[in-house]
Amino acid sequence: MAAHNTGVTGMSRLKEAWTDSEIVVDVRSLLGAVQVLDATSRSVDELIRAVRTRAIDAYSAIAPSDLQDAYGYCWGRWSQTMLDVAATLDQAQRLTDRAAQVYAAVDGSVPTVRR
Amino acid sequence: MSAPTREQLATRIRTTESTTLIASARSFDIAAEDIRDAERRVRALTCATGLPWDGTAHRAWLGYLGLVAARLTQTVRGLGELAGALREIAHATDCARTELAASTRLLDSLRPESPDASAAAAHAYLAIERTTRSYHDSERRIRTNLWRLGDSAPVGVPPTPPLLPPPDRPWWQELLDTGALGATWITGRNGAAYGLDEDGNVVPAPRGHPVQLVRGESGVGDGLAKLVPRVVRDLRDKSALTEGQVTEAFAQTVRESQGWREGHINRHIREWYGLKKGTDIPAWMRKEFFDKVVRACVRPDKVVMGRLPDGTSTQPAYEVLYHDPATRRHLMVRFYVKGNHPGELATAFRPTQAQIDQFLRKEATKGA
Predict the structure, then answer these.
(1) Is the CB of A86 inside 8 Å of chain B's CB atoms?
(2) Is B66 within 8 Å of B59 (Cβ atoms)?
(3) CA–CA separation, B93 vs B351, rounded Å?
(4) What angle do CA B75, B77, B78 make, to 5 degrees?
(5) Please, are residues B16 and B100 in contact by the beta-carbon 8 Å criterion?
(6) CB distance A85–B53 less than 8 Å?
(7) Which chain A residues are within 8 Å of B16, Cβ to Cβ?
(8) In B, which residues are within 8 Å of A61 by CB distance?
């Protein structure tokens, strides 16, 4: 991948070798996105912990019956969905962070083009 | 599996904690709202960083964030519906509890010497019956919605729950031949596992309970003896048959039946004892197998209507599935219903697992 600096800090111009097209990366925006994703991921984790206790309380509050089984099954599936979502968010945060670091490294290492 | 009784339903109404359910529903709502905020933040990211970054990596990144946002939207919907279901349970419980309390108060206030006491008591009991039935209806409706909601969660196909091993029993209980034999799922034609819900309906395995294999103590003269009247036709007092009489009657019938011809039954006896084709069958084996067949007829665990091959078509047959306590294997016995040999033994053999499954499926749906 060929790269050069645009002269504006935080904006890298990178040439994608396989498509031969030029792309522009706003590293600062990307770092901002990392922070948003990180905060969102953490808040969803906290939510899951908080709601899990209440969900278990609800299970105990229903008398043993098929209805209780149905609720247990439903909550089990949706709690798994929430855990999956949290993992997906965490993955998105890590991928974005990695991308931002790589682009920031490129941004800092290439010479500035004087126009 | 039979529908819950009035007493069981009344206990459910009394023990369900509606305030806890409401509190949990509120927590789900708050969580759903917070997740909606999270989803908005993720969607905003895709717009905010969309412009200055372009390329294959960016498109992949946008696609991934879109997936995250879609999952968050689904979670909001799931939590919202769960909260709604909990509120419905709480509402149904509160209504039923109020009605139940009113009926109980009425019953408590009755004085036996009062002339209209019995009418009032009957009225109160009817009201309790109505309340518990109506509560159970709401239970059925909500649980159906909960199963459906659980199925719609995007986390793959739910596995068939594992079966619990049969309970360990002391040796003397084994000898006495009592108690449960364990449980099994019913295998459908499509290969999927089915069980029974608390009302006795056949439902997919995750929604039901395994079918309990219980040795049926149907009593002497019940079951097959009622269905095959020729067996006991010569006995005078049919209302008070002893086990010995029915055993003797079935032994006579089996001995004279088409199905007990050596040309037919020998291969099933060999199959039962694991003998090779053409091997002579010792007399004790024949006698023991005969006793098992008669025992299956006298005390059948289950009886259903089945079909027997009859030339190019089939004919109806009574089918008995008997669990032999000595070998812990199943024995299937079939009796002709009509045709040239009505009421005679048609065959007796060790069934395959598919035949047991098919039998249990029929038994479970009998009368449905």
Answers:
(1) no
(2) no
(3) 47
(4) 65
(5) no
(6) no
(7) 61-63
(8) 16-18, 20-21, 24
Q: Are B258 and B344 in contact (CB under 8 A)?
A: yes
Q: Considering CB atoms only, which of A21, A33, A77 is closest to B155?
A: A77
At B328-351, the pLDDT tens digits run 788 999 988 877 888 888 999 999
Say if CB A48 and CB A86 are below 8 A apart.
yes
A65, B209 in Cβ contact below 8 A? no
- Asked if residue B146 lies in contact with residue B85, where contact means CB atoms within 8 angstroms, the answer is yes
The DSSP symbol for B300 reads: -
| DSSP-based three-state secondary structure for B225 | helix
Q: How far apart are CA A86 and CA B220, in angstroms?
A: 62
Q: Which of A83, A58, A48, A74 is nearest to B153 (CA)?
A: A74
- A75 neighbourhood in chain B, CB within 8 Å: 82, 150
Backbone CA torsion sign across B345, B348, B354, B360: positive
Backbone angles phi, psi at A114, to 5 degrees: -90, 130
Which residue carries 């294997």 as its tokens?
B329
CA gap A25, B225 in Å, rounded: 86
Q: How many other CB atoms are there within 10 angstroms of residue A34's CB atom?
A: 21
Question: Which of A47-51, B92-96, B136-140 has the lowest average pLDDT?
Answer: A47-51
The CA-based dihedral angle spanning residues B14, B19, B23, B25, taken in that order and rounded to the nearest 10 degrees: 50
Condensed to tens digits (0 to 9), the pLDDT of residues B277-286 reads 888 898 999 9
Backbone phi, psi, residue B199, to 5°? -95, 5
> Residue A19 to residues A25, A107, B63, B331: CA-CA distances in angstroms?
16, 20, 19, 72
Q: Which of A11, A26, A41, A74 to mutate to test the interface with B (most CBs of B within 10 A)?
A: A74
Q: CB of B210 within 8 A of CB of B183?
A: yes
